[in-house]
Design goal:
By secondary structure, the protein is α/β, with parallel strands linked by helices. The chain contains ten helices and nine strands. The N terminus is likely disordered.
Length: 253
Amino acid sequence: MPSSADSRWAITFDVEWAHPEVLDDVVRLLAERNLRATFFCTHDGIALPGHERALHPNFRRQRNSVIEGLDPDQLSRWTDIEFYRFVVRSTQAFCPEAVGVRSHCQFYDSELLPVYREAGFEYDSTHLSPLSADLAPEWKGHDILALPMYYMDHWDLGAQATDLTLPRLQPDRPGLKIVDFHPNLVFLNAASIEQYRASKPHYREPDRLRKLRHPGRGVRTLLLELLDFLAGRRGAVSTLGEVNAQYRKAVPC
């Protein structure tokens, strides 16, 4: 397993209930460059041959599709642990092979760790440590490996940290670099949080989103530059499942 002094990349996407046409768009961009990625899935019916599927559970109790139709009285009686277990079981049903998880909205609770372990998960890639050098996997307890994110497009739209340019992403910085993109932000080529929020009423309308696509520099142009950069360094690009397996072999818990 490479040390933190090495530059290893992992491309990830949080599916976020994207329309199939929007998801197919990012899959095509990867295929054109023969790159593999890890997709954190939010719903059933997501087929991604050649890529890794992981889970993106939503642990919020409001506007949560996996608890729609449940008796509100029953839901109110559940402890947090019981609620976590229900959400994990529900999402695991449509992605049973997943060994990794990243929670929606970067939600974290230490009580999730035993729930993840019970479900057979091995890694959690929820934490974001933006543009930090020398990132590396670390053990979190309950045999769960933490794989911290280096970059997230949604964070960048708010922080305006990179001007959505590859040099400001500091691609030669040492350490594990897990980058996280969202298909809708890529499809829209979003350049600001305000533009993204304005598009949300049309979240699952690809034709409308295409008309709203930003014509200048945005999330899409940054992703394209990054994918072109990584296409020449395929030996340094792994799925998170591969990073997890390699680290577990090299540094047992």
